[in-house]
Amino acid sequence: MLHHGTTRGKSRRSRLAGMVLSAGLVVSVSGCGLLSGEDEAAESQGGDGSVEKSAITVAHLPSIDVAPLYYAESQGYFDDEGLDVTIEQAASGQAATQKMLGGDADFVQSSYVPFMAAHAKGTADIKIVSDAVSAAPDTFVLVAEKDGPVTKPEDLEGKKIAVSATGTIADTMVMSYMKANGLDHESVEFVQMSFPDIAAGVANGDVAAGTLIEPFITMGAEAHGVTTVADIATGPTEDFPLAGYGALAETVEQNPKTVAAFQRAMEKATNDVQDREIVEPVIQETAGIDADIASLVNLPNFHATLDASRLQRVPDLMVEFGLIDEKLDADGMIARPDTT
């Protein structure tokens, strides 16, 4: 069970836990309560004063990266800031970003690539409101069937490789890894699959290899016998910024106190989940895994505070592999709400 802190909002948190237990990952059917809506016009009191809007929707991709988000909800950190948060799951970072662009989410957790691609191409003016994770050793890997067609990195050339979505951090990291190791990344064919399906796809021979993050690395090994052939978060992508939370610039500009309240709650929760004893029960519920799997997974590096120089590595890599045409200033995308 998720730990409960303050009693305020406890009934909603109990319903959240029940949804987690029944669905593995929380998927809300509610699309209301957006910052741009008219039903929540009244200001609500937050931790440091009033927020412009209290009811917000946060969409995320399926991963353990969102452990601080759920921990903040379970402990009442959002309640303490005057926020009523609805959490929704999306199939990928691109899908989560589309929820934001379509007005179905206020904040979205995604790999940084879709955020920066949309910003660079003029699809949307996006601000990064909170960091989430960077790659730790053995948390972003290529897996293959044991004794299959790929047993070492050199075997990747000319093969089909499954990724959660193309044009995201998944295929970009593979290309970077292959280039750094003198392999022809242009020879591979990327096949889109959801994270929960990749290990089975590899085991069934639908693809020769696939990119996985935790807990799917550990789950894939247990259920399908897939094995890691390369840790792709090495060399130029060691400790690489993987994911964060974004919002439309208009949302940030019109609701600075709401954004600041979200940032404070996320920073507090992120500090807490550095303790493995705290985070393991959370990921059991958010990822729908048992205690044994939770004890085995390799955890990413959890972050909340945004660092411009570290974040700049993402658009630089995107330029290198043709995801965007020109250099993008990551510092200009960081949300620094003026609450005065």
TrEMBL record:
Main location: periplasm
UniProt xrefs under Pfam families: NMT1 (PF09084)
Keyword annotations from UniProtKB, A to Z: Signal
Localisation per UniProt entry: Periplasm
Gene3D superfamilies linked: Periplasmic binding protein-like II
GO cellular component, one term: periplasmic space
SsuA/THI5-like domain: residues covered: 65-273
Recorded family membership: Belongs to the bacterial solute-binding protein SsuA/TauA family.
Name assigned to this protein: Sulfonate ABC transporter substrate-binding protein
